[in-house]
Specification:
Number of domains: 2
Distance between the termini: 52 Å
Number of helices: 9
Largest sheet: 5 strands, antiparallel
Low-confidence stretches: 184-188
Strand order of the largest sheet: 4-3-2-1-9
Number of strands: 9
Mean pLDDT: 85
Structural class: alpha+beta
Order of helices and strands: HEEEEHEEEEHHHEHHHH
Helix content: 25-40%
């Protein structure tokens, strides 16, 4: 019989289960535009989570919908792929480098024409503070458009079931949730006591005599992984135990968060956006 702990064990040990990484809202050199979670289950104990991440790849001038699958019934080992929703051709007539042209009228997404905006009020409604109030960046235009018309940018039923058994039922969809990064950058999230503890433990390992550098490297990796689990693992905060309970019972009411959502793009800036934040040093 499926249990909450079994699901959390899979999510917390994602590398052991063949996944390249856990759900990450960081987009590296790309820009996060939107995200979504889809939960699927079957009464016989099979379950799956499909994570959607919409990103703007500036280098390739593409808007990508990245899908990543977790569960005990995924039909492909890789279980992740991306869909190009807009490519360079889609942007060439509407953009002037980083900036949206003032005469831009629409973008074509999945064969559908969607109006782009050069109206400051539309960006304000979407919670966007433009870099330049006289013109808007391509990224700002994308975020405004997705805020206004999200459906064309979300995974279709066919997209979602690409690596899933057809008899799984979709039981919950979340457009936002409380999320903590579960990667090696967790150290930046430690409080003062946590940082001091980690520094002390690292020194103890490095000062150990009688061990080769390779052994010390392995010990350091184990230490960092253990620290990550103690501070950032899915089972350490309310979101994932609740979602696991939904998957076990099939009852979406088991998800009743108290924490405010943190998956909006403003919480996950890329390097460029971080640099432009006030107080950056």
């Amino acid at each position: 019989m499926l249990t909450v702990n079994e699901i959390l064990e899979t999510l917390e040990n994602y590398r052991e289960h063949g996944y390249s990484d856990f759900i990450s809202l960081r987009a590296g050199n790309n820009f996060l535009v939107d995200s979504r979670l889809n939960l699927f289950r079957h009464p016989n104990g099979r379950w799956a989570i499909v994570f959607e991440k919409l990103v703007f790849d500036v280098a390739e001038c593409e808007l990508l919908l990245e899908l990543q699958y977790f569960g005990n019934c995924i039909t492909d080992y890789a279980a992740q792929y991306e869909i190009v929703l807009m490519n360079e051709d889609s942007f060439c007539q509407t953009g002037n480098g980083w900036w949206l042209r003032k005469d831009a009228r629409h973008w074509k997404v999945r064969g559908r024409k969607l109006a782009v905006s050069n109206n400051l009020a539309d960006y304000t409604i979407a919670g966007i503070k433009p870099e330049n109030t006289r013109c808007f960046s391509m990224l700002e235009a994308m975020r405004q458009l997705v805020h206004k018309t999200p459906k064309p940018f979300r995974a279709t039923t066919g997209d979602l079931y690409r690596f899933l058994p057809a008899d799984l039922e979709q039981v919950l969809v979340l457009d936002e949730w409380y999320h903590v990064a579960y990667q090696t950058d967790y150290v930046l999230q430690l409080n003062a006591e946590g940082i001091l503890t980690l520094a002390r433990d690292l020194r103890n390992v490095l000062d150990t005599t009688g061990h080769s550098l390779e052994t010390k490297k392995s010990l350091l990796n184990m230490l960092i992984n253990d620290m990550a689990k103690q501070n950032c693992a899915p089972g350490t905060y309310e979101t994932w135990p609740m979602l696991a309970a939904v998957l076990v019972t099939g009852d979406p009411e088991r998800y009743g968060p108290r924490e405010a959502p943190t998956t909006h793009w403003r919480y996950w800036p890329n390097r460029y956006e971080e640099f432009k934040r006030p107080g950056y040093a």
